[in-house]
Amino acid sequence: MRMLEQEEETNDAEVTWEDQQRINSFSKLNNRIRIIEEKLQDLKREKEALDDLSTELELADEDELVLYKVGEAFIHMKQPRAVKRLEKDQASVDARVSVLAVQADECETQMKELKVLLYSKFGTAINLDE
Amino acid sequence: MASTFKPVFSDEKNPRGIPKAPFIANVDEYLGNPDADVEITLKSFQDALAKYRYMESSLTQRRASLEEKIPDIRKTLDMVEYLQERREGKSKAKDDLNDDLEDEDESTNGPVKTTFELNDTLYAEAELDDTDTVYLWLGANVMLSYKLPAAITLLTSKLDVAQSSLNNTIEDLEFIREQLTIMEVNTARVYNWDVKRRREKREKEAAKQPSGK
To answer: Domain containing A32: what range?
Structure first.
């Protein structure tokens, strides 16, 4: 927090409940988007691993037994079955990624709107960037 | 009237009983008197902030433990569902899921062969006999046997409970964040109000005795 210049102080006195709510939403969204981005990172890593796996599995022999992780243990299963499972796992990761991506987009658009509103009202008296 | 103590928290609460922070529309009005003692108010604001921060940290921990617990439940559920899938594949020769896996019959019939983690970095192989029962660890040193469908139902409901409790925790955390922001803004405004008042006072006094300079 820094000291405000004299003319800004008068500006500061006009915080209305509406402004306060905007500030609140902004701070909330800012926090939310950070968490979403963390999760997205994790999921992207998982997705990459599954994609790698899918190329590997294509190379494997049809009759070959592969170890596929289910829960905490590896199940020995035939390649076609493993491919099926992989497809299912990929679909579930993709679904989660798209849900989070939509949420992140929503946060961003709302934050942009709030930024415009708040900056136009408070100018330099408020700082909304990291 | 000036020094009457005002409770910082309002009576309004969120669904989990966390009190709302008050919004100060007008500092003059809130303090009630142009000569009010700002220290007391600022101190009560600090206390309120500290309380919110305490709630925030305990909820953050709760959230972390739930975020850990949910994948655990999901993993268990994955495995039980896998076992159930295999059984269904066996009992119904033509299962939708296994339509294009018909040529795989021998492997569906045999026991499940697994490699499981015996300890960190130590793996062992095991064959699972065909079974319709699993044992679920319920905590408190209790383990119960469940038929596969019952286990799936139980695990699904546990997952739902954990998920909704996580959602509530996240909601609470966001709520607390809002209250923290309100209190921070309140603190800043009361503080600035005080700075402004002192300066006006000083200016007034300076004007009173022009020779003082």
So the answer is: 15-58+88-123
Query: Splitting chain A (130 residues) into consecutive groups of 10 residues, what average pLDDT does each group show?
Result: 49 69 87 91 93 86 82 84 88 93 93 88 75
Residue A36 included in any domain: yes
Domain count, chain A: 1
CA distance B97 to chain A (A): 9
Residue A23's nearest CA partner among A98, A96, A125 is A125
- Smallest Cβ–Cβ distance between B82 and the set A17, A28, A75 belongs to A75
Sketch the domain layout of chain B as residue ranges.
27-196
| Chain B residues close to A31, C-beta within 8 Å | 173-174, 177
Task: Tell if the CB–CB gap between B104 and A70 is shorter than 8 Å.
Answer: no
Q: Is residue A19 part of a domain?
A: yes
Whole-number Cα distances in Å, B54 to B43, B48, B58, B164, B173: 16, 10, 6, 23, 11
Fold (CATH) for B27-196 = Helix Hairpins (1.10.287)
Examine residue A116 and state whether it is found in any structural domain, yes or no: yes
What are the tens digits of pLDDT across the range B169-181?
999 999 998 888 8
Q: Do B114 and A16 touch (CB under 8 A)?
A: no
Q: Is residue A53 part of a domain?
A: yes
Nearest to B185 among A20, A65, A81 (CB): A20
